[in-house]
Design goal:
The protein is built from 2 helices and 7 strands, in the order E-H-E-E-E-E-E-H-E. The protein is an alpha+beta fold. The strands form 2 sheets. The chain has a 5-stranded antiparallel β-sheet, sandwiched between helices. A two-stranded antiparallel sheet has the order 1-7. The structure holds zinc ion (ZN).
Length: 166
């Protein structure tokens, strides 16, 4: 088990554009396992590497929360296909903030899995929303950025814990 500390906004790593993974190794697989363990330890359905302080292009997702069905995406490229959908979103890096956010309802994603194999799929429903949320993390974006400015919660910059350990 490798449960890592979470970075909480306004931690600066959450605002960096993540760098591509250049080499697939045992360390890549170990990091994907740590992300999965940390996601479950915090009751999440997705978690991106910047949320544990690493600016690399990797995230995990599992909206079903069934063990063994986790998806690992490395160096992903995501494109909207069609439609709009809006659900209430939260984020482990933004505790206690829940807001409805507009996103694409159908997307296409391609990238690599933890072993470096090419993966591509077309996705809709909750998984499409989760993948867009996590992909945003790799661009340095948080879901509150997608809210109209007057609904954007103010994230305190002082006297706030920026790390939390499960
Ligand atoms: Zn998030």
């Amino acid at each position: 088990m490798g449960i890592r500390c979470l970075c909480i906004a306004p931690h600066p790593v959450l605002r960096k554009k993540a760098l591509p993974v250049k080499e697939f190794s045992e360390a890549t697989r170990k990091l994907s396992k740590d992300l999965i363990d940390t996601m479950y330890a915090n009751d999440g359905i997705g978690l991106a590497a910047p949320q544990i302080g690493l600016d690399v292009q990797m995230f995990v997702a599992n909206p079903s929360q069934k063990r063994g069905q986790e998806l690992v995406w490395i160096n992903p490229v995501l494109e909207p296909i069609k439609g709009r959908a809006r659900i209430v979103e939260g984020c482990l890096s933004l505790p206690d903030i829940w807001e409805r956010v507009w996103r694409s309802s159908h997307i296409r994603i391609r990238g690599f899995d933890a072993s470096g194999r090419n993966v591509a799929m077309e996705v809709e429903g909750l998984l499409a929303i989760v993948l867009q949320h996590e992909w945003d993390h790799l661009q340095g974006r948080l879901f509150i950025d997608r809210l109209p400015w007057f609904r954007r919660p103010w994230v305190r910059t002082r006297r706030q814990m920026t790390h939390a350990c499960a």
